[in-house]
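Late entry, written up from scratch paper. The run itself happened at the end of the previous shift, but nothing got recorded in the book at the time, so transcribing now.
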Amino acid sequence: MEPYLGEKALAKGDLNKDGIPDLAMVIEKDAVKGEASPRSLLIAFGGKNNTYTLSIIAKNVILQADEGGIWGDPFDSLTIDRGSVLVSDYGGSNWRWYNKYRFRYQDQDWFLIGSTQGSYFTGATTMDQADEDDINYLTGQFIERRTDEQGHTTTKKGTQRKKPLIRLKEFNPENVQ
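Output as recorded:
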């Protein structure tokens, strides 16, 4: 793990509901000169006597340092929230984008259970007015927010047909939604 990612790249909390803290962290391969290093999400379950058991190493979840556009490294944060792992990234230039992906351990595997994706033009709007899609894959509920060129925001809420959940090991941000 690269030191510049710091505490943003490590999260602790109970993920498998056994009352013992678990770990989620970003790991990064050694750099090859002139290239951004591949990153992965590692999740380990805590055990007795401060031991850990590897649950999963997932590729394609954490963007590389050169995938954030002019903004730079898109990795924003890694947290454990309400028993799930939340990965956030942010990038762009005049057009900014952000993603938040929520993964939960259930049925002896890891699944994408929610996502929030947004974008906005910094010359006319702020993140608060971004076009945004928020989806709960467990319930099918969604919130769609759009802001027109005059700054008027409309919000649409609804329920879409539930689809099979995406396994974390098969996750690819390009195939979400």
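The chain has a mean pLDDT of 91.
(Scratch paper discarded after transcription.)
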